[in-house]
Amino acid sequence: MAKHDISKFKRRAYRKKKELTSFLRKVGNSKIKGILKAVAEAEKEVWKEVNCTKCANCCKTMTPTYTRRDINRISKHFNMTYDEFYDKWLQKDENKDIVNQSRPCQFLGKDDRCTIYAIRPTDCAEFPHLNRKDFRYQAKSKIYNQNLPLCPATLVLVEKLKLAIEADL
């Protein structure tokens, strides 16, 4: 996926938002057997179409939630104390989560590559959280809906999952 393709994904996400939101709501409230297997299969297909390292839209438009362990690990890398690192780059959001003070992420390099990739926050390493055991809950909680226009991998997963599930119904 080239850098300029993000606008194409965003338009597609907004065009399909109502349909995909409705689908996610149904999945969140359903007892569809084999949903996690279907998600795992769809996820395998996603990575044939989307390359996160050529996108970095999450790093430009979102912020990870940092754990204490993340902050300790990353601050050590910079030879900083926890408090120095926190004061320089982090803040608490309205949910009391620890997040970046600004966007794009301060660790996003000029080449759209993470400058702390090997020690990045756990939230970054696990993003876009596609294949989770609590997929139904996440679908219901609107996490995937929020990410549809921001993350091409989320959009492609939900599209593929919708096709697979509707084919089985």
What would your notes on this structure say?
The protein has 169 residues and is mainly alpha-helical. The chain has two domains: 96 residues, no CATH class; 59 residues, no CATH class. 57% of the residues lie in helices and 4% in strands. The chain has nine helices and two strands; from the N terminus they run αααααββαααα. It has a two-stranded antiparallel ribbon with strand order 1-2. α1 packs across α9, α2 crosses α9 and α4 packs across α5. It is elongated, with a radius of gyration of 17 Å. The two termini are 32 Å apart. The model has no long low-confidence stretch (mean pLDDT 91).
Largest β-sheet summary: 2 strands, antiparallel
Total count of domains: 2
> Which overall shape is indicated by the principal axes computed on the Cα atoms?
elongated
* Helical content band: 55-70%
- Tell me the span between the first and last alpha carbons: 32 Å
How many distinct helices?
Answer: 9
Rounded average pLDDT: 91
Gyration radius, rounded: 17 Å
Instruction: Assess the beta-strand content as a share of residues.
Output: under 5%
Would you summarize the structure shown here?
This protein is mainly alpha-helical and 169 residues long.
List the helices and strands and how they pair.
Elements: H1 5-29, H2 35-49, H3 57-61, H4 68-77, H5 82-89, E1 90-92, E2 98-100, H6 122-126, H7 135-140, H8 143-147, H9 152-168
Antiparallel strand pairs: 1-2
Characteristics of this structure?
single chain; 169 residues; mainly alpha; two-stranded antiparallel sheet; 57% helix
